[in-house]
Amino acid sequence: MRFGTKARLAAIATAAVFALSACGSGSSSSSSGGAVNGAGKTLDVLVGVNTAYPEQQKQWMSDTAAKFKQQTGATLKFETFTSANEELTRIQTSVVSGQGPDVYALGTTFTPTAYSTGAFKVLTDSDWNKIGGKDRFNQAALGISGPDSSHLIGVPFASRPFVMAYNKTMLKAAGIDKPATTWDGLVDQAKKMTDPAKGQYGMAIAYKDNFDPWKYIWGMSVQAGNPLVDGKTAKLDDPTVKTAYSTYFGWLTKDKVVNPASVGWSNSQALADFASGKDAYFLMTSSGSIPTLDKSPIKDQWDYALMPTVAPGQTSDKAGSNQAASILSGDNLVVASYSKNQDLALAYINLVTSKDEQLNYQKIFGDLPANADALASLDSAPHMAALTQAAKESKATPFTGAWSDIQLDLLNVVVQSIPDLSSGNVSDSALNSRISDAQNKAQQSLNRVK
Amino acid sequence: MTTSNSASGTRHAARAARRASGPAPAVGPTNDPDESPTRSVPAISEGFETPAGKRGRGPSERNRPLWMLIPGGVLMIIVIIVPLLLGIYMSLLDLDQYTLRQWIEAPFIGIANYIEAVTQTNLFHGVWLSVSYSFIATVIAMPIGIAAAVATQNAFKGRAVVRSVFLIPYILPSFVVATVWRTMFQPGGIIDKSFHSLGADPGLFLNGPNTYWTLIFVQIWASWPFIYLLALAGLQAVDHEVHEASALDGALWWTKLRYVIFPYLKGPISLAFIIGMLNHINNFTLPFVLFGIPAPHDVELLPVLTYVTSFQSFRFGLSAAMAVVSLILIAIPLFIYLRVVKLDEAEQGGRK
Predict the structure, then answer these.
(1) Cα dist. A197→A193, A205, A251, A413 in Å?
(2) Which of A56, A161, A395, B149 could form a disulfide with B232 if both were Cys (CB 3.0 to 4.6 A apart)?
(3) Could you tell me the keywords of this UniProt record (chain A) (predicted)?
(4) How far does A201 lie from chain B, in Å, by closest CA?
């Protein structure tokens, strides 16, 4: 088995590293108070490869290393990973051997999994003080740093909130003055702008994307007051979830406001279709779509808006329900418990989460700052208003190690429904059985949480 | 030559001198006491029983320098045996994201992973899909590959070009093959459009029941050149005299192919069949890139299932158990197959 072999190789590599580390000397360094003096030391940071801006990332790394050297005297070494699996393998070997990167950049949805390994430092109040205090950050972004406010491992570094893009010209032509704020309203608007004869549709939806679908289901459920996970109980069998799926599928089968070809679209294909001017709305996109849209035929006709925050079937925001304009998405920085350079690690985090560095990072890569001041200063920049608002109104997905499973279960309902979707009708019974299947699997995953 | 041990020194010298004397009268047994007399008849070893061979262990067996196998043996232990044992050990642990940190201390749960793998996962479904799809793809690719090999056997103008073109699908990385076909198969893609222009609506290719056949189709496209290569190698081994002889006997092309050429191909083709099968069963990139994760139910193949269990659900113990179970499930027919076709005898080709 190819995978069996891979797993076995990973295991033996782990064992080898373990053996080596046993021989390694425990040269722990005692840190003195005040400014961190890291002369002669090396801080190892693991970050994800930025495939969209590889050259810029290299430049950013060397610039940051130079600044870090100037501040602390220590050398900064970057390592990169290309996928969550690679990162997990890296964490695995490092944790077992007790050596490896000092600081990791983690995706937000991966943070609960990382937390459940117990390999990362829970930040104390004095730790937070060393990186400018919790107030330095966009408070919403702290939502997925730990299970509760006293057990935070992740320091927010970048935000990628989700919004929807709209075609101003099409909305104007249909006499719509501003984008809808309820899901029902959005469908009504979309119907007005749909004209299959001209190949024009109200919404561009990526039904075959490997991530998008569960975000809709999660969002609509949360807006209807169901967080999907309540303690150790999965609540996928709640009627709100079925409403969410029915609404999501209904855009194609019932309302007919999306292109039938979208059952085969990934997010980038939906973006391309919107960018060619064929759709009025493109949902579930982030700041990463700016470069594409600014080079497209509709470059002067688009803008971002918050996605609807009122659950399907409702007309106004339920009192007390969270807005959940977007899932909380972006990157967190975590410090490895085994790191012998804890103070240096905090000094690095302090550097890269400062206002200037965060704005610089936003300028290069487009990710929104997690630094509150930096975020506020972007409000007036083009296309930024909706993004910054979404960043502030993002809500974290449930903080449990089972979430990656649940996410997959939610997505699986859509994957298995696509043939029905394509034929124009997702039957009630089929949907029910798929949802109950997902509920069972989700509950099993939650049962295993330790 | 050492000076401290003069006795052995002189012996070496004597032996060297004997050798240097070339094809001298002493062709028979040497007088050297540490060489057994049976060594003098090494020529008659294959095919004929020697009197010496009847006395228990044969002479060539007794003095085999087995220690020369040590480097290979050590490598085999490190590369195959140790990871295999570790994998089996892992399959007995409750190893997941929560216990990963001290995985050596992860709770030992015996065969619980195996029970779960068999009763609560789609393991058998996955094994069945993997094996059946591999079998169909291999069986269909086989005649295509052989036909291509036979067609390019005789020299003609441009044969080199045709042979190179045939290899293109084999050279392309799986990832590229899958990406290209996914683009063509998607709704509104070129294949979908072609069907519609013919008035047919085959439905989706990348979701639903058609996925199984999509996968088989792409797999055949990507892997027939492999069969072609091995068949070509087999054809090269056919003696020229055989062609002439059958031509003199007035054999028609089909008779010639069936009774003269194919027997030569039996070995290479049996080999191609088994390697092809194993390659297909192991193929992860193709279904992963074509259909994504989570896979549609009809192409929830074994490698995809193991991948999801390991790297999406982080259940390393369960996934190791699934790997072991599937290894056993696939090893049994494989063993029988190897016994039946007797691949090691295939070297004799058409001599039968």
Answers:
(1) 12, 19, 18, 31
(2) B149
(3) Signal
(4) 16
Architecture of domain A163-326+400-447: 3-Layer(aba) Sandwich (3.40)
Fold agreement between A38-160+329-395 and A163-326+400-447: yes
Mean pLDDT of A313-341: 82
Token match 């997902």: residue?
Answer: A438
Q: Are strands A279-285 and A163-167 parallel, antiparallel or unpaired?
A: antiparallel
Domain positions in chain A are 38-160+329-395, 163-326+400-447
What residues of chain A lie within 8 A of the CB of B284, using their CB? Answer: 2-3
Chain B, window 283-322: residues with a beta carbon less than 8 angstroms from a chain A beta carbon: 283-284, 292-297, 302-303, 306-308, 310-314, 316, 319-320
Q: Of A5, A419, A416, A87, which Cα lies nearest the Cα of B284? A: A5
Residues 6+ apart with CB under 8 A from A420: A426, A427, A430
Asked if A370 and A329 count as a contact pair (C-beta separation under 8 A), the reply is: no
Measured distance CA(B210)–CA(B134) in Å, rounded: 16
CATH C-level class of A38-160+329-395: alpha beta
Instruction: Name which residue leads in pLDDT, B132 or A4.
Output: B132
CA distance A412 to chain B (A): 6
Q: What is the mean pLDDT of chain A?
A: 87
ipTM of the complex: 0.76
Contacts of A54 (CB under 8 A, 6+ apart): none
Task: For residue B194, count CB atoms less than 10 angstroms from its CB and return exposed for 0-12, middle for 13-18, buried for 19 or more.
Answer: exposed
Q: What is the rounded distance in angstroms from the CA atom of residue A419 to the CA atom of residue B20?
A: 83
Contacts of B283 in chain A (CB under 8 A): 2
Q: Which residue of A has its CA nearest to B81?
A: A8
Q: For the segment A296-319, what is each residue's pLDDT rounded down to a tens digit?
A: 999 999 999 999 989 898 887 654
Question: B143-163 pLDDT, tens per residue?
Answer: 999 999 988 888 888 889 999
- Contact at CB, A7 and B87, closer than 8 angstroms: yes
Q: Is B170 on the interface with A (CB under 8 A)?
A: no
Please provide the DSSP assignment of A129-163 as one string: HHTT-GGGB-GGGGGGSSSSTTS--PEEEEE---E
| Tens digits of residue pLDDT in B170-193 | 899 999 999 999 989 988 888 988
pLDDT at A103 over 50: yes
Best of B311, B316, B326, B329 to substitute, by most chain A Cβ atoms within 10 angstroms, is B311
Q: Which of B96, B101, B283 sits opposite A448 (nearest CB)?
A: B96
Q: Chain A contact for B76, CB < 8 A?
A: no
Q: CA B122 to CA B120: how far, in whole Å?
A: 7
State the DSSP code for B258: I
Question: CATH says B111-351 is which class?
Answer: mainly alpha
- What pLDDT score was predicted for residue B350? 43
Comparing CB atoms, the residue among B295, B314, B316 nearest residue A113 is: B314
* CB A283 within 8 Å of CB A204: yes
Q: For residues A102 and A180, give the distance between their C-alpha atoms in angstroms, rounded to a whole number.
A: 46
Q: pLDDT band for A322, please (50, 70, 90 cuts).
A: low
Two tokens at A298? 């509709």
